[in-house]
Write a structure and sequence with these properties.
single chain, alpha/beta, Rossmann fold, 8 helices
Length: about 200
Amino acid sequence: MTKKSTNTVWHSATVTRQRREALNNHKSVILWFTGLSGSGKSTLAHAVEEQLYQKGCRTYVLDGDNVRHGLCGDLGFSDQDRKENIRRIGELAKLMLEAGVITLTAFISPFASERRLARKLVPHGEFIEIYCSSSIDVCESRDVKGLYKKARDGVIKDFTGISSPYEEPKNPELIVNTGSDDIHDCVKQVIELLENRGLIASLS
């Protein structure tokens, strides 16, 4: 269990989230991309960010590998470390939400309970779970790092989809078939969801 900090008081800034959103001309939101390794989470998240950036939106992608170079560099891949990894990302994404940024997270985040905890950190409607659905066969065929082979050979332990479970989202806000659909179609689905929810102005 995570230890609680003591003798701390939350400081309320005069520059509020609402003022930042007004300056940005869009709402802030967390787009939580989840799926197996090789399902296309990072590719889709960065493609969506590019589309949003071209239209003047304030964005940032929290990528699984990048975060493990610093913020979560002390964590391994045991179930407990994976849970702590997602806990930290959830807290960071919450801060970025307050900063008025559209935050896109690209993590396997295999456990439903940790995704629920991340969702509960922010008000209803501000956490959008996007399931990047792809068969494990397709994911393995895209495995440029050779991780699946190492996992099947027993070199890598606790590998999601092979020796560690992935719990598919039961009620995500969006399911994108990244295993079969064209990347442009996948991006369009995400952008349309943001437009329909009134989080960004129509980009068409």
